[in-house]
Amino acid sequence: MLRLLKKLAAGTPPAQPMPEPTPVAAAPDKVDPYMLGLHDAMLSGWFNQQTGELFTGFPVTAQDTLLDVGCGDGGNVHFCAMRGANIIIADIEAAKVEATRQRLADTPARSIECHVTDCNPLPIADETATRVVSTEVIEHVDDPAQFLAELVRVGKPGALYLLSVPHPSSEDLQKDIAAPEYFQKPNHIRIISEEQFKAMVSDAGLEVISHSQYGFYWSMWMLLFWEAKVDFSNADHPLLNHWANTWQAILASPRGAQIKQALDAVVAKSQVIIARKP
């Protein structure tokens, strides 16, 4: 757009003097969609600094050994490292493991152990971890039962598990709009219903403690992202910018929290299970 404006400015000047511009109110500051998403996640129960819970019902302390399988960019495990826990990370992508290792280098984590692995099997001893995290991974793997069996194997008796997968309401919303590769290997190769998710976790031998959902904001953002056809690393588009501004205004409204809760219950980006190993 800036390039287009420069070209127009370099054209033939008008025959008549241009009128004085009418003063307008300053445009509102642009909302960072990712920071807004972080704020939305915190309202949903993530990253509670006061209680030390990575997610509601999942406290992490310096006495824990926490394993994050599919660590991605390290956002979840960084919170846990800041609690002083012993950290183990695993991901199939070496670049992500190295980036996360560097991200954790200055944290008070007691130790940091890194593995590049497809988790079949995990190169970790039986009954190692007191906390196991795996978010938005199961929808990618070929054999969820085998994957979950490995997570259960490496947890100590009494270990807590934080597991999440995309919610079917959001996945169904995007089916005919998302880029085809979004629902192809190595991306989302299955849509997991609430009942299937609970059954997967229970069949693996874990006791389901809670099952919740959140993320209407991200569901709508992703829907608009496909329409905007921009790069994810630089997702700057009027559709996305307007949506972020709208959601921020909703959250800031007197009943913003109530509206968010109602919409999260209808179309959620993710479903989260907290479980315990007997």
TrEMBL record:
The keyword tRNA-binding does not apply. GO terms for molecular function: methyltransferase activity. Keywords: Methyltransferase, Transferase. Residues 67-161 form the Methyltransferase type domain. The lineage of its organism: Bacteria, Pseudomonadati, Pseudomonadota, Gammaproteobacteria, Pseudomonadales. This is Class I SAM-dependent methyltransferase. One of its GO terms (biological process) is methylation. Pfam families: Methyltransf_11. InterPro entries: Methyltransf_11, SAM-dependent_MTases_sf. The keyword Methyltransferase applies. CDD domains: AdoMet_MTases.
